Amino acid sequence: MSGKECSHHKDRKKKRIRRCLSGLMIFLFVILLLILIIWAIIQPKKPNFVLRQATIFNFNVSAPNVFSTTIQVTVTARNPNSNVGIYYDKLDVYATYSGQQVTYFSEISPVYQGHKDVNVWSPFLRGNNVPIAPFYGPDLTRDKADGAVWLTFKIAGRVRWRVGDVITGRYHLHVDCPAFIPLGTTPGDGGIVVGNTVKYQLSQSCDVSV
Question: Coiled-coil segments, which residues (predicted)?
Fold first, then answer.
């Protein structure tokens, strides 16, 4: 075989490889375009979270800026989508006062939520002698005199959307559920004594961002 024939054979092989690569790129582009079109038509909605209940086992302020807390909160999460499922990946729940964390993280196990489904979670939130910044001391002293404080129960984690057999990448989920929580275990307005605890029905809508 001459050198010219060998060179011609190599050129034909390169052209075939380029055609295969071009075909593969076009195929992937079409698939991606179809996914984006379906996604735009369906327009998945973010889940709805509601803080339903808070059960106080212990909630005290010792010293001007130190919290000791044991609270069980009940939160519902509803998937409002008719055609989109939601994967919740490792959600962390905790409480904050004036933006500062006052309980440890409580983990919610990963779960899949089907179309229009509702999940109910009741994690325990605990914090023992957790200090906050000293400059919040006067506010906390005033709240203590009033007998209740505003806490924000937060949920942080990641979610994935499922449309048919297509599952997206992970998106950050942030949920804020503010609530006015009485100090101690003496029932305030609307509180129900259950054993050594006080239970409050809240039904407080939460702010959700994805």
Answer: none
